[in-house]
């Protein structure tokens, strides 16, 4: 089991390195941000915080690796490491919408009274997002998405802020 988890994390790291090495050769806008997340599914709800990096591969396509840590609830902690793609559609000068499609590694751990059990699965993310550009330095966003995971699925709503650079 430990070998499988190591291979999963190594595969995701290689995929992220490939995306950035290929993308870094093209000029594009970048943004770094943080978000609040609320996940729900199969009678289990929890909240978390995350960080993200956006890079425009081309106009209108961007990639967004993100990491979201869900706070422990009922002795369960969840970590979501995702790589999503957005097709940004400008609606107005300051307002964009975009579909979300991507992959993720979802790790959950149950810990209680000295015992611990963990599970890691690959999943697919699908959803949509909207962002409002406040000025040339930052924007706010909201993004509902559905994570389709091997033996558990969940709806996730994130809201956050990104800083442009």
Write up what this structure looks like:
- With 165 residues, the protein is mainly β.
- The protein has one domain: Porin (Beta Barrel).
- The protein is built from one helix and nine strands.
- It has one helix at 2-23; strands at 30-41, 44-56, 61-73, 76-87, 89-92, 95-112, 115-133, 138-149, 154-164.
- It has an eight-stranded antiparallel barrel.
Structure keywords:
165 residues; mainly beta; Porin; 8-stranded antiparallel beta barrel; 1 helix; 9 strands
Structural class: mainly beta
Distance between the termini: 40 Å
Number of strands: 9
Spans of 5+ residues with little confidence (pLDDT < 50)? 14-26
Strand order across the largest sheet: 1-2-3-4-6-7-8-9
Largest sheet: 8 strands, antiparallel, barrel
Helix percent band: 10-25%
Calculate the mean pLDDT score and round it: 86
Number of domains as seen in the coordinates: 1
> Over all CA atoms, what is the radius of gyration?
16 Å
- The CATH class: Mainly Beta
Question: Would you spell out the secondary-structure blueprint of this structure?
Answer:
Elements: H1 2-23, E1 30-41, E2 44-56, E3 61-73, E4 76-87, E5 89-92, E6 95-112, E7 115-133, E8 138-149, E9 154-164
